[in-house]
Write a structure and sequence with these properties.
Mean pLDDT: 89
Distance between the termini: 40 Å
CATH superfamily of the largest domain: N-terminal domain of the delta subunit of the F1F0-ATP synthase
CATH topology of the largest domain: Peroxidase, domain 1
Low-confidence stretches: none
Helix content: 55-70%
Number of strands: 4
Number of domains: 2
Oligomer: single chain
Radius of gyration: 18 Å
Number of helices: 8
CATH architecture of the largest domain: Orthogonal Bundle
Shape: globular
C-alpha cells in the first residue's frame, strides 16, 4: 500500500482505511447483520483481488459512477441484506475502490476481535464443509493458542491440503510443500 508514498502519506492512507473499516463495522453492527456483512464483504474482497477486470472497472475514475454502482448491484443481487452492497457502493462512489480489500480485511479482523477470535484465511482447492471448518478452527487454535475464525478462499492453485494465514503466521499443509520437503530430504 505504501509504494511511492512518503511515510506520512502511507500513515494517512492507513488511518483512512481504518476509519472506513471502523465505520462499516459500526453500520453492520448497528443494523444487526455483522456476521452476514462480514461474510459477504470477505467474499467480495476475494473476487475483487482475483479478478483483474472487476478491479480495473471499479477503480476506473473515467467510467461513470452509475455504471460502477450497477456492477456492484449485480454482484450483490443475492445478498442477504442491503448493507454489504450499500457499503461497497459508498466506498466505490467516493473513489476509494482500490482500498476495498484493505478496508474489508480490517473489518473482518475487527469483527473477529469482537468475538475474541483471530482470523485464519485458509486457501484450499475445494470448498470446506462446516464440519471441516470447525475441525480446522480447533486445530489452528491449538497450534496458535488463539480462538480462530476460519475464512476459506477456494484456490485451484492449491493442489491438495491447505494454506492457513493467521496474521503474519503461515501454516502450509499443501501436498506441493510436503513433496518439496521430501525432495529436499532425499537429495
Amino acid at each position: 500500500m505504501g509504494l511511492g508514498r512518503s511515510p506520512r502519506e502511507a500513515l494517512m492512507a492507513d488511518e483512512r482505511v481504518d476509519a472506513y473499516a471502523n465505520a462499516m463495522f459500526e453500520v453492520a453492527k448497528a443494523e444487526g447483520v455483522l456476521i452476514e456483512v462480514e461474510n459477504e464483504l470477505f467474499d467480495f474482497a476475494q473476487a475483487f483481488k482475483a479478478n483483474d477486470a472487476l478491479r480495473t472497472t471499479l477503480t476506473d475514475a473515467a467510467m461513470p459512477v452509475e455504471r460502477r454502482l450497477a456492477i456492484i448491484d449485480d454482484l450483490f443481487k443475492n445478498s442477504i441484506s442491503p448493507v454489504a452492497p450499500n457499503l461497497v457502493s459508498f466506498v466505490v462512489g467516493i473513489g476509494r475502490a482500490r482500498d476495498l480489500p484493505d478496508i474489508i480485511d480490517r473489518l473482518v479482523e475487527r469483527a473477529a476481535a469482537e468475538k475474541d477470535k483471530a482470523v485464519a484465511e485458509v486457501r484450499s482447492a475445494i470448498a470446506l464443509t462446516e464440519e471441516q471448518r470447525s475441525r480446522l478452527a480447533v486445530a489452528l487454535g491449538q497450534a496458535t493458542g488463539k480462538q480462530i475464525e476460519v475464512k476459506v478462499v477456494v484456490d485451484p492453485a492449491v493442489l491438495g491440503g491447505i494454506v492457513a494465514q493467521i496474521g503474519d503466521q503461515v501454516i502450509d499443509g499443501t501436498v506441493r510443500t510436503r513433496l518439496d520437503q521430501l525432495r529436499a530430504g532425499i537429495q
